[in-house]
Design brief:
Strand content: 15-25%
CATH topology of the largest domain: Immunoglobulin-like
Order of helices and strands: HHHHHHHEEEEEEEEE
Distance between the termini: 44 Å
Number of domains: 3
Helix content: 55-70%
CATH class of the largest domain: Mainly Beta
Structural class: alpha+beta
Radius of gyration: 33 Å
Largest sheet: 5 strands, antiparallel
Number of helices: 7
Oligomer: single chain
Length: 260
């Protein structure tokens, strides 16, 4: 990622733009832009934000789409190598722990194996004795009448129906899917979405670009005014232009309960 970072930095310096200016234009914090240029992607919180910041920064620097996709693919390959390396390390630790545990078990059980063998034979002998005794007592056990047998079968069938019904209810609950909040940019615009003061999305949406978020929670949508985005919740259109306006910024409090 350092090679990509150096490329972005050289591209920005060639255009004579500072990180502070980029931060102001893209509404992306300077420390995240600096992390992209230094290849220190661990600073950025999550793959979604990393890909979004990288794509927006590249578009800002007029990097060709093909090169942008190659950068994202390079990051994905790096993440896969990290994941494989981590899994290999965990597997080695597991095998070392397992081998050590097996060695300790063998060392512990070896001196008393004959005691366990004797105990096992005694248990088998007692089990055979009790089984023989039970078979003899079963000869004198009364056979249930046909009515009791039918009642038992009915109980079993009713219990099976209850279990099947509960299973179907659980499957239907799991199959439910939350409606999606959808934003579609009619032209280049800045958007920020908050959920209980937690940033869900912050960045630039270019013309025709879309953003989806499945939710049933209240959200705050902040964007430029006049607004350049179309907003939908499920199949219903939302008029966010009815929100409050402050210094060319539109703030709209979205409540899913009012749009269902």
């Amino acid at each position: 990622m350092k090679d990509i970072g150096n490329f972005l930095k050289e591209r920005r310096e060639t255009r004579g733009v500072s990180l502070i200016e980029v931060e102001k234009d893209l509404k992306i914090r300077k420390k995240y832009l600096q992390a992209l240029e230094e290849g220190n992607v661990d600073v950025i919180p999550g793959k979604t934000y990393l890909v979004g910041y990288l794509r927006n920064y590249c578009k800002y620097l007029d990097v060709e789409e093909e090169n942008v996709n190659q950068m994202i693919q390079t990051y994905n390959n790096l993440e896969k190598r990290k994941s494989v390396k981590k899994e290999t390390k965990e597997e080695n630790i597991y095998l070392q722990t397992k081998n050590k545990s097996m060695f300790e078990k063998k060392r512990f059980y070896l001196p008393v194996k004959y005691v366990y063998l004797s105990g096992f034979l005694i248990i088998i002998f007692i089990g055979l004795f009790l089984l023989n005794r039970s078979l003899k007592e079963a000869q004198y056990f009364p056979i249930p009448s046909p009515e009791i047998g039918n009642e038992t079968e009915e109980n079993i069938e009713s219990e099976a129906e209850v279990i099947i019904a509960e299973s179907l209810i659980q499957e239907s609950v799991l199959a439910e899917k939350l409606p999606a909040l959808k934003l579609i940019a009619s032209s280049k615009t800045w958007v920020k979405i908050l959920s209980e003061d937690k940033i869900i999305f912050e960045g630039i949406l270019f013309e025709g670009e879309e953003f989806f978020w499945e939710t049933d929670q209240s959200l705050e949508i902040i964007t430029e005014y006049p607004t350049k985005i179309e907003t939908y919740y499920g199949d219903e259109s939302i008029e966010i232009s009815k929100g409050s306006i402050d210094n060319f910024l539109l703030k709209y409090n979205f409540n899913p309960a009012q749009n269902i």
